[in-house]
Every structure is written in structure tokens, then in C-alpha cells.
């Protein structure tokens, strides 16, 4: 028959023992043992706060007897309870005490576990250097007791630490070592997550082909011990890397399979990402109607997901993407409608660089789509003002705005001259030498400003394009 923890039972025991003011060593030992037992009961039923009360009491009684072995047991209970309560700073107060005790008494396995959980606590507190030190120590201790399974845990933890430090190459090395041990030991239940972690690390160093191979391995092992959450994540990651590998059809297939799993829980954050990838893939395949459908699915979820947050960048970007689709379909009124949504969002949230990019895109649409150079000029000026107001320097975008100004200047000046001729009832030449000189001067000024910006942005290909435009303008004006 198991004994169920009862707080009243403990209080009765405390009162009985406290009747003897001169407690013998035996009674003190009993009180320590009782509190350890009650602490264990509380810990087992996840009442960690009460477990701490009993473990601390046990530590007090054992300290009266200077019983280091039992004190270590009590402190281990205290540390475990703080860890369960996610009080990681407290864990790091107590773990060095018991780690020192275990090492002095050659209890390598317990010392290794303590070092491991110290590393975990440091990782949770973003103390990466200390976490790495503890994880390496844990691995060394596990190797001394020939505990390969826990060595794999230590390698895996080192991989996580390096990943959090953005040291992705080192992360791949540690995850690979983890996988080698677990495959050798036949620990298949862990391998789906291990391979996914490896894939994530390859993804962040732009080794998408290797990332895809790791994700496919993760999918293989997850089918053996199926976990729905893991499968969703794997499919999302496969969709992502396939898109970057220009394998858009595969990206769409993986994305649509992921949607089926995510829709069952209506996981807004991940659904936004999946639909965005599907939209990007359809856009690259020039299937703009299908891209609009996917982007729209992502966009309305953004409005819900980010309703109570200030993070509206994704929503604005999706409206830009929808604009781009309608622009390609020559539905310019619709395109402008969605771009205006992005502009409004970025204006409200003072996303200055994004706003400058939106103004530039609007200028492009007004010029190319609606042949409205006056509106294009207005938005180019707005883009320049936003760039000058921003703390960030974006010479590439600045170059694009100057280049567009160069593109629209001849049309603007010709329109202005036509308006002048209309008002003067045709008295004057339509295409004078003075007008040609003015077109040349202003156009060259904008194009040379574009080249200067592209030079600062290290965009030689863009410089070459503008130089060709300059040559073309000079030839046309001869």
C-alpha cells in the first residue's frame, strides 16, 4: 500500500518530535529522513513548493549532524525542485555544492547528471559560455563511466548551446556526433528530433541541400515513432528548403501537407509561415492567382495573430506580396489597394525603411502600370524623405529610387511641354533643343546619383544597367 502525502501528518510529526527539547541524534536523523520522504512524495505529485519546504527542513536537520551524504541528498532534492519550478538561478546556487561533493566522493554518474542539469539551467538563462563548460564536463564524466547514451545527451546539449550562440557549423558537428551514437545504440525514438535539429543548423548556414537530406531522415524516423507535432515541423521545414532550392513544386506539396496537419489545431503562427512559402512558390512559378490565394490565407491570419502585438511587419509584407501578384496580372487598381494597406501599417508603426520601400514600389506601379509619372514622382519624393528620416542607411534602395527618377524624367518633361503647347495653342516647337538639353541634364543627374548609391551598396550589376540607360538616352537625344 502506498502512503499518500498529507500535510497534516507532517505537522503532527513535527509537534511530537518538538516535545523533546533535547532531541537525540536518533530523533534528528528521523526528522531528516521523514522530511526527505515527504519531500519525495510532494515531488512525485508535482507539488514542488511544498517539496522545497521538506527538503530544506531535511537539510537543516542533517546539518545538525554534519552528515554530508544526507545533506547532499537534501540539496539534490532542493535543486531538483527549483529546476522543476524553472527557478534556474536557484539551481545554479545549489548545484556547485553537490557537484563538488559527488566529485570528491568519486560518484561520477551523479556528478555527470549534476553538470548536465547545470548546463541546462545556464542555457535557460542565456549564459552560453558557462553552459558550454558544464556540458563539456558532463560529457567527460559520462565518458569515464562508459555511458554512451548520456554522452549523446551531452553532445545534443552542446549542439543546442552552439545553435543559440549562432555558431551553426559547431552545432552541426555536435548534432552529428549525437546521431552517430544514437544510431549505433538503436535509440530511434530520438533520431527524428536529432535530424531535424541538424537540418535547422544546415539551413542557417545556407546548406539547404544538406538541410533537406537531414529533414528527410527526420521524416523517415518520425514515421517509425510518429509524433504529430514533429511531423508538422518537418513538413514546414521541407517546404522552406525546397523553396530555397528552387524546387517550388515540392515546396508546395510539402506545404499543403503541413497545412492539413496545422489546420486541425489552427496554429496561426505556423500556418502564416506555411501559406507564405506556398505563395512564394506559386509566385516563382508565375501562377499568380494561386499565389494570391495562399498569401490571402496568410494575411487574414496575421490580422488575428498580431492583433494584440506591435509586430505587424509580416502583415505589411504579405500585402506587398499580394500587390505584386495583382501587378503581374495587370490588375493595377487592386494592386494599389493592397499596397496602400502596407503603407498604412508601416506608417502607423513607423517602420521607416519598409515604408520607403513601399513608396518606391508604389512609384513603380504608378509609372509602369498606370503610366502616371506625376504620381510616380510624388512617391519617389516620399521614398527619399523616408530614407533621409531613417537612422538606417540603405544605399541599394536609394539607388533604385534615383534610377526610377531617371526613368520617368523624360516622360515628365515631355508631358510638361505638351501641356505648355496646349495652353499656347501650338505656338512653339514640340521638341526643341532646349528641351532635349533639359531632359539630358536632369536624367543624367538622377542616373549618376543612382550609380553613386549602387557603388556604395556594392551592386556592380545595377551600375552596369544604369550605364546602359545613360548610353541609350544619349543616343536617342542626338
What does this structure look like?
This protein is mainly alpha-helical. Among the domains are: 1-85, Serine Threonine Protein Phosphatase 5, Tetratricopeptide repeat; 397-478. Helix content is 82%, strand content 0%. It has helices at residues 7-18, 25-44, 48-65, 68-84, 88-104, 108-124, 128-144, 148-164, 168-185, 188-204, 208-224, 228-244, 248-263, 268-284, 288-305, 313-328, 332-348, 352-369, 373-389, 395-423, 433-456, 460-476. The radius of gyration is 34 Å and the shape is elongated.
For this entry, give a set of tags.
478 residues; mainly alpha; Serine Threonine Protein Phosphatase 5, Tetratricopeptide repeat; 0% strand; elongated
Question: How is the secondary structure organized here?
Answer:
Elements: H1 7-18, H2 25-44, H3 48-65, H4 68-84, H5 88-104, H6 108-124, H7 128-144, H8 148-164, H9 168-185, H10 188-204, H11 208-224, H12 228-244, H13 248-263, H14 268-284, H15 288-305, H16 313-328, H17 332-348, H18 352-369, H19 373-389, H20 395-423, H21 433-456, H22 460-476
- The assigned CATH architecture of the domain at 1-85 is Alpha Horseshoe
Taking all residues together, what is the mean pLDDT? 89
Q: Give the N-terminus to C-terminus distance in angstroms.
A: 105 Å
CA-based gyration radius: 34 Å
Q: In what range is the share of β-strand residues? A: under 5%
Parts with pLDDT < 50 across at least 5 consecutive residues: none
- How would you describe the shape? elongated
- Taken in chain order, the helices and strands follow as HHHHHHHHHHHHHHHHHHHHHH
Helical stretch count?
22
Amino acid at each position: 500500500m502506498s502512503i499518500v502525502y498529507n500535510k497534516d501528518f507532517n505537522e503532527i510529526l513535527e509537534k511530537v518530535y518538538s516535545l523533546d527539547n533535547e532531541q537525540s541524534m536518533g530523533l534528528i536523523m528521523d526528522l531528516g529522513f521523514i522530511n526527505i520522504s515527504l519531500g519525495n512524495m510532494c515531488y512525485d505529485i508535482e507539488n514542488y513548493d511544498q517539496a522545497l519546504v521538506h527538503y530544506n527542513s531535511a537539510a537543516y536537520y542533517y546539518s545538525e549532524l554534519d552528515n554530508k551524504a544526507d545533506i547532499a541528498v537534501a540539496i539534490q532534492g532542493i535543486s531538483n525542485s527549483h529546476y522543476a519550478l524553472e527557478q534556474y538561478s536557484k539551481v545554479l546556487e545549489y548545484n556547485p555544492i553537490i557537484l563538488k561533493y559527488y566529485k570528491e566522493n568519486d560518484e561520477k554518474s551523479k556528478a555527470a547528471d549534476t553538470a548536465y542539469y547545470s548546463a541546462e539551467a545556464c542555457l535557460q538563462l542565456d549564459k552560453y559560455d558557462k553552459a558550454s563548460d558544464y556540458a563539456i564536463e558532463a560529457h567527460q564524466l559520462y565518458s569515464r563511466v562508459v555511458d554512451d547514451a548520456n554522452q549523446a545527451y551531452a553532445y545534443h546539449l552542446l549542439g543546442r548551446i552552439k545553435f543559440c550562440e549562432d555558431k551553426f557549423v559547431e552545432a552541426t558537428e555536435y548534432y552529428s556526433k549525437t546521431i552517430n551514437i544514437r544510431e549505433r545504440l538503436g535509440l530511434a525514438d530520438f533520431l527524428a528530433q536529432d535530424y531535424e535539429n541538424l537540418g535547422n543548423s544546415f539551413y542557417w548556414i545556407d546548406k539547404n541541400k544538406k538541410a533537406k537530406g537531414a529533414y528527410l531522415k527526420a521524416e523517415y524516423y518520425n514515421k517509425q515513432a510518429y509524433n504529430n507535432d514533429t511531423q508538422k515541423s518537418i513538413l514546414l521545414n521541407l517546404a522552406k528548403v525546397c523553396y530555397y532550392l528552387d524546387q517550388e513544386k515540392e515546396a508546395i506539396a510539402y506545404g499543403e501537407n503541413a497545412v492539413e496537419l496545422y489546420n486541425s489545431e489552427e496554429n496561426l503562427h505556423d500556418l502564416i509561415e506555411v501559406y507564405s512559402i506556398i505563395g512564394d512558390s506559386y509566385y516563382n512559378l508565375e501562377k499568380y492567382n494561386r499565389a494570391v490565394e495562399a498569401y490571402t490565407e496568410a494575411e487574414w491570419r496575421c490580422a488575428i495573430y498580431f492583433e494584440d502585438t506591435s509586430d505587424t511587419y509580416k502583415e505589411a509584407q504579405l500585402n506587398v506580396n499580394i500587390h505584386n501578384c495583382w501587378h503581374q496580372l495587370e490588375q493595377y487598381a487592386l494592386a494599389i489597394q493592397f499596397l496602400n494597406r502596407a503603407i498604412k501599417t508601416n506608417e502607423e508603426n513607423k517602420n521607416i525603411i519598409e515604408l520607403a520601400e513601399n513608396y518606391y514600389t508604389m512609384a513603380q506601379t504608378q509609372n509602369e502600370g498606370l503610366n502616371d509619372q506625376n504620381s510616380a514622382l510624388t512617391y519617389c519624393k516620399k521614398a527619399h524623405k523616408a530614407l533621409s528620416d531613417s537612422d538606417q542607411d540603405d544605399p541599394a534602395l536609394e539607388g533604385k529610387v534615383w534610377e526610377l527618377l531617371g526613368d520617368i524624367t523624360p516622360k515628365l518633361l515631355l508631358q510638361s511641354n505638351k501641356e505648355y503647347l496646349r495652353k499656347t495653342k501650338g505656338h512653339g516647337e514640340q521638341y526643341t533643343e532646349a528641351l532635349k538639353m533639359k531632359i539630358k541634364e536632369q536624367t543624367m543627374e538622377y542616373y549618376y546619383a543612382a550609380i553613386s548609391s549602387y557603388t556604395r551598396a556594392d551592386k556592380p550589376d545595377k551600375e552596369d544597367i544604369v550605364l546602359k540607360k545613360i548610353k541609350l538616352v544619349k543616343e536617342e537625344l542626338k
